[in-house]
Amino acid sequence: MTYLRTARLDLEPISLAMVEAVMAGRREDAERIAEARVPTTWPNRALIERAFTASMDEIRADPATRLWGDRLMIARDERGERRVIGSVVFHGRPVDNGIADMAYGVEEGSQGRGFATEATRACTEWALAEPGVVAVAATTLPWHAASLRVMIKLGMVHIGTREHETLGELVVYELRRA
Prior knowledge:
Elements: E1 4-5, E2 9-13, H1 16-23, H2 27-34, H3 45-51, H4 56-61, H5 63-66, E3 71-76, E4 82-89, E5 99-106, H6 115-129, E6 135-140, H7 145-153, E7 157-164, E8 168-176
Parallel strand pairs: 5-6
Antiparallel strand pairs: 1-2, 2-3, 3-4, 4-5, 6-8, 7-8
Helix pairs in contact: 1-2
């Protein structure tokens, strides 16, 4: 998978080894794999379990499909030091309907600085250029103002709602290929 780069971020593919290290709480391994510092509070197990809707067995069985498009957000500072600040995930390669379902998160200390918009814009553009992808969709809680702002800045359009078994009602936004 291609590496993406923006003005402030390296958007690097999430590997099976990285998912396993994070799920097992092996922070040192995650930092070695990413070649970047990983924040103490990110990612936590609850976030990973929401982001990766597939089981570890499903991910291990077909990492190319299950981790399709998933990327770490790695910020670069003026000294060239790299720090993982979040991720963009696509819940697997789109198949039947051509809609890539995207989610994103930024660790608390890096929020409010436009990183989510910068990263999701690059990943959305990449996904829409991939064969068979007709749209990118994202969901959030109706009250999550920061997440809604990201979707609107990307040019996504509100297309409806969806029920989540534990989170309740989610709003759904989508950006279609031009």
